[in-house]
């Protein structure tokens, strides 16, 4: 039997039971010929009317709750943490049950996992969200960034408070921090823009930086940037093509200085080692 057929059968049974109870209530309220009619009561107290028995027809909601409580522990933990993160409020187990249908007290595995989760704070009564850095506003955020001159991962502060990302963009717009993308880890890194901060750079990194020889042609530089996943700020190839269409001559490449030539006036003839590669004119 399919689920829909079972639900239809259950609803029919509810309707039948309701009809039976209503019929019994009507028959019991009618006086029979053998019964004497009771005299009207002189009491002013209102008579009680029996409330009809109601059956719950919220089947989908009950099925949803049952599915949540039978889901894996990790899925239930995520529901609770999402609730704590979005609201930033403290909840008792009963309040969590009402808000997201996770029965913490009825599932020891869920309770223990939630209590020991590094994103959750439990004070013995209530659960609340716990971020890596306890920040309350933009001033504290800037102070924290300045304590990391070598860079702070944005993922470590993005859950500190609700408007932290807006404050981070505001600090960037004000020129107080640098917000750069890390191509290796696909995570943004924020740096303090403070000239007083001393940043230590390893000698190996300095040598690596100085040992990189850039191409002489700007087109080759732009191609290298694109290979590394970066978008060049210029498009030299397009600019040159447009210049040729409009007949604008391109700038000649600067000639490399060749040093000393035969026409150079020699004022240091007493230092012959300087002129070993020069064919001196006959005197």
UniProtKB/TrEMBL annotation:
GO terms for molecular function: DNA binding; TFIIH-class transcription factor complex binding. Residues 1-50, 233-266 are annotated as: Disordered. Residues 1-46 have a biased composition (Polar residues). GO terms for cellular component: transcription factor TFIIE complex. It is found in: Nucleus. Keywords: DNA-binding, Nucleus, Transcription, Transcription regulation. GO terms for biological process: transcription initiation at RNA polymerase II promoter. It holds the Pfam family TFA2_Winged_2. The keyword Calcium does not apply. The keyword Cell membrane does not apply. Residues 252-265 have a biased composition (Basic residues). Its main location: nucleus. Residues 61-136 form the TFIIE beta domain. Belongs to the TFIIE beta subunit family. Tetramer of two alpha and two beta chains. Recruits TFIIH to the initiation complex and stimulates the RNA polymerase II C-terminal domain kinase and DNA-dependent ATPase activities of TFIIH. Both TFIIH and TFIIE are required for promoter clearance by RNA polymerase. This is Transcription initiation factor IIE subunit beta. It comes from Dendrobium catenatum.
